[in-house]
Amino acid sequence: MNSKNHLNNFTVNINEKTEKHIFKDINNIKEILLKSNINILGIYLVGGFGRGEGSTLIKKNKIYIINDYDLIVVYKNSINSKEKNDIIKKLKKKVSIRQIDITYYEFKTLRKLKNSVYNYDFKYHSKIIYQNKNYIKFIPEFNKEFNISEAYLPLEVYMSALILSLPTKNDFNNLNKSKRFWVFHQISKSIIGWSLSDMIENNLYEPLYSNRFKVLKKLYFKSNDKHKKTELVKLALDFKLNTYYDINLELDKLWFQTKKIHMDALIQKYFIIYKINIPFYFYKLKIKNIAKFLYGFAFNKKYYYEYSNLFLSKLFFLLSIDGKNVDKNYFKSCIKYCKKIGLSNKHEYNFDNILEFLKKKDPNCIQFLESTEDILHE
Q1: pLDDT by residue (tens digit) across 164-192?
Q2: CB-based contacts of 38: which residues, under 8 Å, 6+ apart?
Q3: Average per-residue pLDDT for the chain
Q4: Quick one: pLDDT band at residue 80, thresholds 50, 70, 90?
C-alpha cells in the first residue's frame, strides 16, 4: 500500500469542523511552500495526520491541534538554510498550529533512501499534498526489519518527554487542568517511545496506532511486567486516538512507572553487552557520537558537538529522581555534564534549577515549549 492522494480523514474520530480546519492549514502550507524559491516537486504529510490518526481537541468551540504537522518536501536542484527559515517564518504567521516539522529530500536521493521507520512511513503511510509526478514510486520497497539503531532512537528522543512532563519541585498535585493535560501528553509520548523501540527490536513494527495494542499485547505476553506494560500502552494509545482533556489519573505514580520502564530499556540496550555493564561515559565514545562532535566542531553547529554531554546530563538527571528523593551521586554526575554544555560553575544547584536548564538546552524541549499554549477551561 503506497501513500494516498486523498486529503481527508486526518483523524480517527472524524469531525467535520476539525477536518475542515486541518484541510485549511494544509492548503495554506502548500501555498506558502509552492510560492517559495525552492524548486518543489512534491509535498507529503507524514506522522499522525499523514496516517489519519492525528490528535486534536475541541474546547469551548476552539480547535487545538495536539500533534505537529510533519511534512516531507521533495525538491530539485539546490536549497539553503535561509530559504528554509523564510518558509518557517511565513508558516508561523499563516497557519494556526505553531509547530511544523519539514524534512527536505532532494529528488535524486529518493532511490537511495535507507530502510528506516521514517522512510517506511513516508512510502506507505503518508498523504500526498502536491506532486506533479508519482515520486513515491522512486523510493525503494521497504520491509519492517530495520537496523537495530532504529530501536534505540525513540529511547533517546523521548527522554525529552520525561523531562517535559516533570513539574517544578516534582509536584504533580498542584497543576491546573491545562498543565495536567500537557503533562499526560508527554508521559504518553514516553510510553509510545519505549513500546515503539520494543516493536522495532523484534521486527514487529506497526505504523498505525489503532493496530499497535494487539501487536504489543502479544509481544509483552511473556514479560515479567506484562500487566503494567500492556496497561500503560493501552492508556497512551487510547489517548492518542481519542484525545480527551480531563486527566483524572495519579500522574506522579504514572510518571515513575513510565520512567522506570523507559530508563531500564535504555540502559539495557545501550549499556549492557553480553550481561556486562558498560560505564555510561562510554556513550561518548560511540562512533556516531564522535562523528557528531567532529561535525559540530568543524561547522560550528553547537547542538552536534554538545549532543553526548546533553544525553548524559538527561540520563543522570532522570536516574537521580527516586520518588521525592534525589540520588546525590547521579545528580552530581548530571551537574558535571551540564557544566560541559553551559551551566555556570558559580552556583550550587537544586532539582528545579537543573530541570529548567535542561528544558532550555534540549532542542526537543525548546520546540515543544515554544509551540504549546494553555487550553481554555472552566
Answers
A1: 999 988 889 999 999 999 999 999 999 99
A2: 73, 75, 79, 83, 87
A3: 90
A4: confident
* Helix (H) or strand (E) segment spanning residue 70: strand 69-76
**Across residues 288-311, what is the average pLDDT?**
78
In the chain, what are the domain boundaries? 16-138, 149-371
- Among residues 215, 205, 185, 244, the alpha carbon closest in space to that of 67 is found at 185
d(CA 10, CA 18): 9
- DSSP-assigned letters across all residues of 169-195: GG--TT--HHHHHHHHHHHHHHHHHHH
Say yes or no: domain 16-138 is CATH 3.40.630.10.
no
pLDDT at residue 377 tops 60: no
- Residue in this structure with the C-alpha cell 506533479, named with its chain if needed: 132
Q: Measuring CA to CA, which residue among 233, 341, 333, 220 is closest to residue 279?
A: 333
309 grid coordinates: 554531554
Burial (0-12, 13-18, 19+ Cβ within 10 Å), 293: middle
C-alpha span between 53 and 91 (Å, rounded): 23
Instruction: Report which residue type is found at 366.
Output: I
Instruction: Give the contacts of 128 (CB within 8 A, at least 6 positions apart).
Output: 3, 4, 5, 7, 42, 43, 44, 136
CB 100 within 8 A of CB 29: yes
Spatial distance between the Cα atoms of 233 and 145, rounded to a whole number of angstroms: 22
Q: Are 269 and 233 in contact (CB under 8 A)?
A: no
Strands 56-59 and 62-65 come out as antiparallel
Q: If we measure between CA atoms, which residue out of 245, 233, 213 comes closest to residue 66?
A: 245
Q: Residue 108, exposed/middle/buried by CB under 10 A (0-12, 13-18, 19+)?
A: exposed
From CA 264, how far away is CA 271, in angstroms rounded? 10
Cα 321 to Cα 154, 256, 279, 324, 327: the distances in Å are 21, 9, 19, 7, 6
On whether the CB atoms of residues 2 and 123 are closer than 8 A, the answer is yes
Reported pTM: 0.93
Q: What are phi and psi of 59, to 5 degrees?
A: -135, 125
Retrieve residue 312's grid coordinates.
548524559
> 532522570: which residue's cell?
318
